[in-house]
Amino acid sequence: MTGGPEPLSAVARAAFERELADLRTERETVAVTLREGGGDQVGDRADQADELQRVTELQRLDARIAVIEGRLREGAVAGPPSTDEVGVGSSVTVRFADATETTVQIGEVAEVLDATMVTVDSPLGRALLGHRAGDTVTYDTPEGPTTAVVLSLGDAS
């Protein structure tokens, strides 16, 4: 990623919004157990440990919610992906070492049923980031290092 606001594909935005809704529901559930169990009651060590665990879980949920909200804001202001250089949201046509060609989308979130999605933290995704049409990239596969040529790129939104 470039360090500046990164574009967010429609698929990634939808996945983040689903995760955010789930996290908010989970957070409310945990918060309710704290309110119900709180107060001036003095419990045994097990009760105190349980409450501490719920507080820790609430902090974890709050941190993840903040990250997702920030990424959604960033994606909203980033504009469309560059068509000059591979980045998040790019649609990239590549030719692999075996001469097959395919178009993949560079995203942050893998969709189980989307065989064209390549995440930025996958070997191919990392290799493609920052490259331009005509560049050859090298990346690792289970069979060993291989190459791919960037044929063209565009907006995957």
Automatic annotation (TrEMBL):
One term of GO molecular function: RNA polymerase binding
User: Do you know which InterPro entries this protein is assigned to?
Assistant: GreA/GreB_C_sf (IPR036953), Tscrpt_elong_fac_GreA/B_C (IPR001437), Tscrpt_elong_fac_GreA/B_fam (IPR023459)
Where the record annotates domain Transcription elongation factor GreA/GreB C-terminal, the positions are 82-152
What's a BP term from Gene Ontology annotated to this protein? Answer: regulation of DNA-templated transcription elongation
**Entry's Pfam families?**
GreA_GreB
Q: Which domain of life is it from?
A: Bacteria
Q: Which PANTHER family does the UniProt record give?
A: TRANSCRIPTION ELONGATION FACTOR GREA (PTHR30437:SF4)
In its UniProt entry, what is this protein called? Transcription elongation factor GreA/GreB C-terminal domain-containing protein
Q: Which organism is it from?
A: Streptomyces gardneri
List the lineage, top down: Bacteria, Bacillati, Actinomycetota, Actinomycetes, Kitasatosporales
